[in-house]
Each structure stands twice: as structure tokens, then as C-alpha cells.
Write a structure and sequence with these properties.
This protein has 9 helices and 15 strands. It is of the alpha+beta class.
């Protein structure tokens, strides 16, 4: 099996790049690409269409670039994930272990599964496999700097949320599911999920299945501070889908527009100031998975 590894040397979980590269030799890859700047991983993936397996060795941002390189380049290679980042949220859904040696052994076993891919059209077209969110989450991502990730690790997500809380505001939002007539709500946040986790393991879509052909849609309604505090605790435990402050739906397509415009992020990357249309592409990507895959 012809293998290409795309490595982000400054991913949050990389402490000793030489040691990581030494371990990666166990995959016997024909090509090792090392990203130096944003966009490199996507370019490397798009240029690797003749490989059987492309391994994303980095965090969720690196993975998103690799996924876009595969999707936009029409590549048929399977995707492997080595979780070297701060959050490693999609790796959790796939059942990929955090131990690098064990994760490499899993990739070598090459157990694959066809999973769903999501295309979002806003200011530009992007693809993702995990989670996109708009509204308050967009403000949080603006606060989340690489320096904060390095200093705080997984707690950086909560730190940036605290920094953004003073800018919490509501959005008058139109939502249309599967081309049905749109309905209007006052929301703080819109979450469109294929995977289950965000922000280093928070189960924001605890029942999501990456191969069920449906998006899990979590809409956070405007509420007072006390109710929001309770809801935040429920989200941390994955117990929020039945809350009065949450509207939970499943669909193959969702269109969002709002006043003011929401900024949406895809796996932590800001991609546009809506309107945004999310479309699920069923089982469009083959992925190496672990025994505990969701």
C-alpha cells in the first residue's frame, strides 16, 4: 500500500519532532511531507492522488486541510489520522488512540470504513468531517491563538470562551432543513456536526454517527445567564440534547442566514460570514478506524 504522510511539526502535541519522525518510519511511507505554513497540508494532499493512503499527522486543523486536499483534488486514497494536536476531536470519534505507537499499529492494520463528508458553501467552499459552528463559537475561535493553545493545551478552548463571553450576543436566524420552508429563531449558536466532539473532547453532538448519512444539528437558543450556565454544564457532560435551551434536529442539508451575520468555523478555521449551506456527502471518504469508532 503506497503511503503518504503529511506532518505538522508544530502541532500542539509534538514535543520532540525528531522522535516523532523516527516513529513514523514504522509506516514505511513512500512520501513524507512536512508543512511549513497554512495551506501546505492541503496542497500536499491534493498532489498525492496516486497514493493508496494519506496519513494526517497533526491536529484537527491539519486534518481539515488534508480532507480538503483529498476532496477538492478528487483523490481516492484512504485517510489515516495520527492525533498530534491539542484537541484531536475527530480522532476520538474514529476510535484512534492517543498513544502514537498504538495509533501507528492501527494504521498498519488498515481497517477502513466509509464515512460521511460535509461540504459547506459560504464565502468559499470547504469540506469537513468533524464539526462546524457559527455565532458565539466564531467569536471564541477569533480569541483562540496558537500561543494560547501552546500555553494552555486542551484548556485553551475554555480559556478563549471565557475571553469571548463579554461579546456574547443573539442572532435572529433563519434555518431551512432539507429544502423545507425556513423557520426563524433567536439563537446564540449553531452547531452542524458529523463527528461527536469539539474543544478537546466536549461531546457537543453525543449521538452523531459519521456514517449514518445525516448531519446532527444543535441550535442554542437565547437564554438568561443562569440558564446558560446550566446548559454549559450539560454540554460538558453530553446531556444537553433534551434541554429546553436546545433545538436538536437531523438533516442531510441545512441552510443558515442571520442578522447580524454569523461567522462560521470548520474544525476551528473561520471560513465565512454566512449565509452558509451545509450538504452531507454520504460515505464519500474512506477512513482508517479503531475498534472503538463511534
Amino acid at each position: 500500500m503506497r503511503t503518504c504522510i503529511i506532518l505538522n511539526p508544530i502541532a500542539g502535541g509534538v514535543k520532540n519532532i525528531d522522535a516523532v519522525q523516527d516513529r513514523l518510519r514504522g509506516l514505511k511511507a513512500e512520501r513524507l511531507c512536512i508543512s511549513q505554513q497554512a495551506g501546505d497540508a492541503e496542497k500536499f494532499a491534493s498532489e498525492s492522488s496516486d497514493f493508496d493512503l494519506i496519513v494526517s499527522a497533526g491536529g484537527d486543523g491539519t486534518l481539515n486541510e488534508v480532507v480538503n486536499g483529498i476532496a477538492q483534488g478528487g483523490c481516492k486514497a484512504a485517510l489515516g489520522v495520527l492525533p498530534l494536536g491539542t484537541g484531536n476531536d475527530f480522532a476520538r470519534t474514529l476510535g484512534v488512540p492517543t498513544d502514537l505507537e498504538t495509533a501507528i499499529e492501527q494504521i498498519m492494520a488498515a481497517k477502513t470504513r466509509a464515512i460521511d463528508l460535509v461540504r459547506v458553501t459560504s464565502d468559499r467552499v470547504r469540506y469537513f468531517v468533524n464539526v462546524s459552528s457559527g455565532g458565539f463559537s466564531g467569536v471564541v475561535d477569533e480569541k483562540l491563538t496558537p500561543e494560547m493553545k501552546r500555553a494552555w493545551g486542551p484548556l485553551a478552548y475554555l480559556r478563549s470562551a471565557a475571553a469571548a463571553f463579554s461579546e456574547l450576543r443573539g442572532y435572529t436566524t433563519k434555518v431551512a432543513l432539507d429544502d423545507a420552508q425556513a423557520f426563524e429563531l433567536d439563537l446564540y449558536n449553531v452547531i452542524v456536526a458529523n463527528g461527536r466532539y469539539v474543544a478537546g473532547g466536549i461531546p457537543v453532538a453525543p449521538e452523531a454517527d459519521v456514517a449514518d448519512g445525516l448531519l446532527d444539528i444543535v441550535l442554542i437558543a437565547e437564554r438568561g445567564p443562569a440558564e446558560l450556565a446550566i446548559l454549559a454544564a450539560q454540554i460538558l457532560l453530553g446531556k444537553h440534547l433534551s434541554s429546553d435551551g436546545v433545538i436538536f434536529r437531523r438533516a442531510k442539508k441545512i441552510a443558515i442566514s442571520s442578522r447580524p451575520g454569523m461567522w462560521f468555523n470548520v474544525d476551528g478555521e473561520l471560513i465565512g460570514n454566512e449565509p452558509a449551506i451545509f450538504e452531507l456527502l454520504p460515505q464519500a471518504l474512506r477512513c482508517v478506524v479503531g475498534a472503538g469508532a463511534a
